[in-house]
UniProtKB/TrEMBL annotation:
Stretches assigned to the Nudix hydrolase domain: 29-168
SUPFAM superfamilies membership: Nudix
Residues annotated as signal peptide: none
A GO term, aspect molecular function: isomerase activity
Alphabetical UniProt keywords: Isomerase
Native source species: Cytobacillus oceanisediminis
Protein name in UniProt: Isopentenyldiphosphate isomerase
PANTHER family in UniProt: ISOPENTENYL-DIPHOSPHATE DELTA-ISOMERASE (PTHR10885)
């Protein structure tokens, strides 16, 4: 497998070189990523879409995460990150359809793994029904949608569990799912990341009304 090379940055977001993906996460270099959040409005409620990471993923297997996300390679622009949407979800989206939410820097650490991201975050107003999603099995094992206000309540106002519905792929078969999820079912992004993303979503939806 070809080694992924990523641009690396100092604490002032100035590029200082290029490193392999393995070195980036071992030494804790700042690097660029692409995050795309799908959102939809149904029956006057706003919903967020989460991917279920494959059970075979090395990092955070079988947890719910950003709708589509990935690293921006050293020879790519931020616009090239749009490939992650089609690769992971099987949905064709033009970069011009995305709403930029800015660059959010954050750090997550666990044993032998340091993830210091400069995340270019985007919002996509989706009109695709769940049956149109065709996830890449080795990356994504399913898609669920959750009411935006419910997710905000789970993360910031003390709700213990919230409803999620969608589908999972098991042995090549698409199976409908409807379940309650808790905080520990999600990739543990830092609170300020979720707050900034959710506040931006709520503001944009308010401005549309």
């Amino acid at each position: 497998m070809e080694t992924e090379l990523l641009n690396i940055f100092d604490d002032d977001r100035k590029q200082i070189g290029v490193a392999s993906r393995a070195e980036v996460h071992t030494k804790g270099h700042w690097h660029e990523t692409f995050h795309c959040w799908f959102i939809s409005k149904e029956d006057d409620r706003d919903f967020i879409y989460f991917q279920n990471r494959s059970k075979d993923k090395k990092d955070y297997p079988d947890l719910l995460d950003i709708t589509a996300a990935g690293h921006i390679l050293s020879n790519e622009s931020v616009m090239d990150g749009i490939r992650e949407v089609e690769e992971e979800l099987g949905i064709n989206v033009a970069f011009e359809e995305l709403v930029p939410l800015g660059v959010i820097d954050y750090c997550a650490e666990k044993e032998h793994f340091i993830d210091k991201e400069l995340a270019h975050v985007f919002l996509y107003h989706s009109h695709h029904p769940l049956e149109k999603f065709s996830p890449q099995p080795e990356e994504v094992s399913g898609i669920v949608r959750i009411a935006l206000d419910d997710f905000y309540g789970l993360w910031f106002t003390g709700k213990e569990s919230i409803a999620a519905d969608g589908f999972e792929i098991n042995n090549g078969k698409r199976i409908p799912v409807s379940k309650n999820v808790r905080k520990e079912d999600f990739v543990p992004h830092e609170d300020y990341y979720y707050r900034r993303v959710l506040d931006s979503m709520r503001q944009l939806e308010t401005e549309k009304c």
